[in-house]
Amino acid sequence: MSKTSQRLGLNLRKIRLELHMTQVQFAKKLKIDTAYLSNLENGKKNPTLETIESIAKTLGIKVEDLVR
């Protein structure tokens, strides 16, 4: 796991919990598979830049906010 993947995962989990959403609800909002979201949150998957941009757009945040 890279540090960037771990940061992305932690930030996704933090945002999800701030929104009081389950992984299933959050995955539906992001239009991604629940298992994929779980892998992202755990830093096990490296999403494409297109996926990161889509997630940021859906959440109304900057890409930088996902990986800082």
TrEMBL record:
Q: Name one Pfam family in it.
A: HTH_3
* SUPFAM superfamilies tied to this protein: lambda repressor-like DNA-binding domains
Annotated ranges, domain HTH cro/C1-type:
12-66
A GO MF label: DNA-binding transcription factor activity
- One cellular-component annotation, GO: cytosol
PROSITE patterns for the chain? HTH_CROC1 (PS50943)
Keyword DNA-binding recorded: yes
Superkingdom, according to UniProt? Answer: Bacteria
Under Gene3D superfamilies, the record lists:
lambda repressor-like DNA-binding domains
Q: Which UniProt keywords apply?
A: DNA-binding
InterPro entries, per the entry:
Cro/C1-type_HTH (IPR001387), Lambda_DNA-bd_dom_sf (IPR010982), TransReg_Diox_bact_type (IPR050807)
Instruction: Write the protein's name.
Output: DNA-binding protein
- Give the organism the record lists: Candidatus Vogelbacteria bacterium CG10_big_fil_rev_8_21_14_0_10_51_16
